[in-house]
Each structure stands twice: as C-alpha cells, then as structure tokens.
C-alpha cells in the first residue's frame, strides 16, 4: 500500500498559487486568465484557489501586490549596498531588468498599470506605483525630477521587453532604441532577452 501523500502547508500552497497566477496573468492578461488554468499549473483544485482568494480579481490583486513587493525589495537591496550616488540609477535599472527576466513579473506589472480605471484594481495599481516612486525619491535619494524620469524610462523598458524587441537587434532602429534606453545595461538586456525572445518568436 502506498503511503499517504503529504499535504503542503497552507502558506506554501498559497505561495504556489501566486507563482502560478503570475505565470498565467503574464501569458494571458487579466481578462483571459482563468482560475482553472492557475489551479492546473499550481497542481491544486480550482475550488481551493477560489476558497483561498475568493475571486479572480482578489487573486490578481494579491499577485500584483506580490510583484510590487518584489520590485520594492530589489530596489531596497541596491540602496542597502551603498556606493556612489551617481551609480544608483544604473544599478536600480539593472535590478529591474533582472526582475523582468521573469515574464510573469514583467507582464503582471504592465497589466496592473493599465487597469487604473477598474474600481477594485485601480487603487492597488496607484498605491503600488506611488510606493515605488517614494522609494526612489526618499530612500534612493533621487530628486522628484530624476525619480519621475526613472519611472518613465522604466515604463519604456517594460514596453520594449514586453514586445520582445531585444530579439530584433538586426534592425538598426531596434539597436538604436535599445542603446538609448538601456545605455550601460544594453549588453545585459541582449544577453538575458535576445536569444530567449528570438526562440519564442520562431
């Protein structure tokens, strides 16, 4: 007789749901994602997903808050390392690029910030965006102008990576755009995203 399979603790199952949700929301977007698809990837029942989070909206909000927390933690880790102030922005940019290597993180953020009109998700999106802004201004020491410019460039970074543009470096316009956007991190972006996105486009 086979021994009974051990059940994961509730906290671990919740974490596995959030990980699967980021993957599904990242692939399909908020509207097309289903709790059934998330449950299948997490290896649990759809009923358990609903019992844990209540609804797809609540699950998306929890996933988005987790993603924002990852960005906040990554930026704070850079800040905690110290170093010359003039190097802080390139290092924050590199930290974000490495986070965006997880496509679920990248696209969940993109979807979150396009849902500002939604009565349930909008407040979460605004709070998350402003949280990142205040970390840049108050903890990283950027001026309001530099923090705003960093966020603007971050949105451009997200769009470029979301479009898989690093796979098209044979196009001179793409190469120029990557160099202007990522500057000292251009080689890193090409290394992390070029071959992967090219494979996805074949």
Automatic annotation (TrEMBL):
Superkingdom of origin organism = Bacteria
Q: Which UniProt keywords apply?
A: DNA-binding, Transcription, Transcription regulation
HTH tetR-type domain segment(s): 11-71
Keyword Transcription in record: yes
Q: Which InterPro entries match?
A: Homeodomain-like_sf (IPR009057), HTH-type_TetR-like_transc_reg (IPR050109), HTH_TetR (IPR001647)
Looking up Pfam families in the UniProt record yields: TetR_N
DNA-binding region, residues: 34-53
Record protein name field = TetR/AcrR family transcriptional regulator
- In its UniProt entry, the species of origin is given as Ornithinimicrobium faecis
């Amino acid at each position: 007789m086979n021994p009974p399979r051990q059940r994961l603790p509730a906290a671990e199952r919740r974490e596995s749901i959030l990980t699967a949700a980021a993957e599904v929301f990242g692939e399909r977007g908020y509207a097309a994602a289903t709790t059934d698809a998330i449950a299948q990837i997490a290896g649990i029942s759809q009923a358990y997903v609903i019992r844990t989070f209540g609804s797809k909206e609540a699950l998306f909000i929890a996933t988005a808050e987790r993603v924002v927390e990852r960005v906040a933690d990554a930026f704070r880790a850079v800040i905690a390392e110290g170093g010359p102030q003039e190097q802080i922005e390139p290092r924050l940019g590199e930290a974000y690029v490495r986070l965006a290597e997880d496509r679920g993180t990248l696209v969940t953020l993109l979807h979150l910030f396009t849902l500002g009109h939604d009565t349930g998700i909008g407040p979460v999106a605004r709070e998350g965006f402003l949280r990142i802004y205040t970390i840049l201004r108050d903890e990283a020491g950027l001026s309001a102008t530099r923090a705003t410019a960093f966020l603007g460039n971050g949105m451009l970074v997200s769009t470029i990576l979301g479009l898989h543009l690093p796979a098209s470096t044979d196009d001179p316009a793409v190469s120029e755009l990557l160099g202007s956007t990522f500057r000292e991190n251009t080689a890193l972006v090409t290394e992390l995203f070029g071959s992967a996105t090219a494979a996805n486009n074949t």
